[in-house]
């Protein structure tokens, strides 16, 4: 037995017992609800998994690299690419003029040039493409873009921050505004008020595999594009438009990505386009793989945001009226910012009922990378400010922030409708919270931490609880559709193709489990093939956490069609009703008789029964009015909560997450091992966003943090020593595939509790301060020290007698 087989066997043995805290699957014989290893786990760890850059290169393959702009905003006065063309190994240098069709790779608006024309809108924007004999030679030649002799610019005024864009009223899309009730009057009449500002940074997706595409020209104006993308259909479409071809000339294939995290939902397009353009013009295969620094400089990230908020509340901290303005950095073009901003609006409420509320979201146009999807897709930016607000409210009232949160939870009757008009019908947050508070021992630890802090002058501990309610569905209703194709071959083996893409999240494993279950087969009899636009047409991006909801259902439908045909045949042969046929343990049984699945399939072939089928799924119930920002954008909600405990060093600003307790609702999990992995990964990734990952642009708009040397993502030693992650057993109220729930994005919001615990520790360091700490995110050591300084300054300037008497507080969480 080779190492790979041994690994799989061991993993399968470990997986035999369903994970703790998970109820027995509905059909005990099926592979549903079992903690099976990821379909490619052995390949991942042995290095055998084929990523786009690992595809064996065809003879004659050329390599592309991009020449990037040196200015954040400038007119291109002239280009003289002779020196680039003469550089060693260079075959061709391409500019926008070489594009036969549309010079655009934008997903929604047509404001994303593939190669810049006349003007550059951010520092790092691709202006030309070098095609050379090798990757290295292409990069060397492309680096000549740094020379003044190659491109002459006339610098123009650049807007580099969302604040400046807001002041200049520069937006990529019109502002979004959702208002319910009369928040101004409610805030004015409230017994207590709070007002403040806050800021949160952006986040680089930092997929381990960078952006890459490999384009292979085919006969009769055909193009096969291997792309590391979450959205093969869109890659097909933008490449076709760029070449002025019909879509059927282009095939896009993706076996897997080494992570996408939203960064390959739209922004894989530029790379797919440039590789395809060169392949078309030169009639040779062309590969474009961005090096890490270029990837950072070219592609968009999570939207950073600045906020202004105001709330009125009663003496229990219950919000009576609230107002927020969320100014997101969209960057130089619209990309997906409209949908991101919409999701930010729809997640401001998080888990809390807001009777009277006013939410504005701005898509600020800046001369920086065009920000895009990142796990949570604006949801985290919407909900974070609510949690900060509640924390400040609690501190003003001198209550435990937990109790203020509980007082604001969605409830029943009048308190169950979101600001956008959707009722919260599947609310389990209260029960989930009780479970977590019990298991994490929150109240007792709160007291123990106070005791510790009283005795510890330098190190201070902090504790915080935060909940998540996350709406599941694309917030653009038509995107909620998927297709699948299931083939049963004559020997009884099964091949599944679906429109989703595998990026490490385990989608293929879950879809294979669903199909194996339909046929009563072990997972080893089902293989999932690469995503391919010539198999499933017009797919949506694998995004919005809906991959398994959509493609699982489509594959289930396809398998059921085949199963029904087989059932009819076996009922004829063994007697009985087709409806009574059972598929389990590799056998088909009915009427007291049994037949091996493989034998039935062979018989079906000879009887000329169609052994393959397509399947389609469209999510029911969802609708949305983009004008009024109301409707039923989400099929259901996923819930979760976390309790985090940190310690900070008040002299250095260093901190450590000591313990995290997480309880997350993945519905009735199809695969608890994969879902736990998603919860753990999402938690740590969200923690990175809020603590160590800091994007920093120089005064001339150059992103200075463009490599792991300057941009700190969490590593294994940032995982808390005590990390208690559990799935909450809760079958979806809606009939999703096996009543599971989407789990990809919601856990990213769980580490709000880490940020809030740091705030708690800072507050503990200055017990005399009346106001909440003004901590910006990410809570780097500098930010923590700034917050401590501000709190000390505040407490020194306030007479002790004034403390606790103020009914109104103005806080600034921004230390800009
Ligand atoms: N997990 C891994 N390992 N790699 C990824 O790139 N992307 C996340 C999440 N989990 C991602 C991941 C994002 S942004 C989304 S939208 C979902 O996975 C997409 O996959 P799903 O819909 O199948 O859950
Ligand atoms: N998530 C991800 N991508 C999207 C969405 C969403 O909610 N809406 C439109 N594109
Ligand atoms: Mo995920 S941000 O919807 O790709």
Automatic annotation (TrEMBL):
<keyword id="KW-0560">Oxidoreductase</keyword>
<feature type="region of interest" description="Disordered">
    <location>
        <begin position="1"/>
        <end position="27"/>
    </location>
</feature>
<dbReference type="InterPro" id="IPR037165">
    <property type="entry name" value="AldOxase/xan_DH_Mopterin-bd_sf"/>
</dbReference>
<dbReference type="InterPro" id="IPR008274">
    <property type="entry name" value="AldOxase/xan_DH_MoCoBD1"/>
</dbReference>
<dbReference type="InterPro" id="IPR036856">
    <property type="entry name" value="Ald_Oxase/Xan_DH_a/b_sf"/>
</dbReference>
<dbReference type="InterPro" id="IPR046867">
    <property type="entry name" value="AldOxase/xan_DH_MoCoBD2"/>
</dbReference>
<dbReference type="InterPro" id="IPR014309">
    <property type="entry name" value="Xanthine_DH_Mopterin-bd_su"/>
</dbReference>
<feature type="domain" description="Aldehyde oxidase/xanthine dehydrogenase a/b hammerhead">
    <location>
        <begin position="46"/>
        <end position="157"/>
    </location>
</feature>
<dbReference type="GO" id="GO:0004854">
    <property type="term" value="F:xanthine dehydrogenase activity"/>
</dbReference>
<dbReference type="Pfam" id="PF01315">
    <property type="entry name" value="Ald_Xan_dh_C"/>
</dbReference>
<feature type="region of interest" description="Disordered">
    <location>
        <begin position="794"/>
        <end position="816"/>
    </location>
</feature>
<feature type="compositionally biased region" description="Basic and acidic residues">
    <location>
        <begin position="1"/>
        <end position="13"/>
    </location>
</feature>
<dbReference type="Pfam" id="PF02738">
    <property type="entry name" value="MoCoBD_1"/>
</dbReference>
<dbReference type="InterPro" id="IPR000674">
    <property type="entry name" value="Ald_Oxase/Xan_DH_a/b"/>
</dbReference>
<dbReference type="Pfam" id="PF20256">
    <property type="entry name" value="MoCoBD_2"/>
</dbReference>
<protein>
    <submittedName>
        <fullName>Xanthine dehydrogenase molybdopterin binding subunit</fullName>
        <ecNumber>1.17.1.4</ecNumber>
    </submittedName>
</protein>
<dbReference type="InterPro" id="IPR016208">
    <property type="entry name" value="Ald_Oxase/xanthine_DH-like"/>
</dbReference>
<keyword id="KW-0500">Molybdenum</keyword>
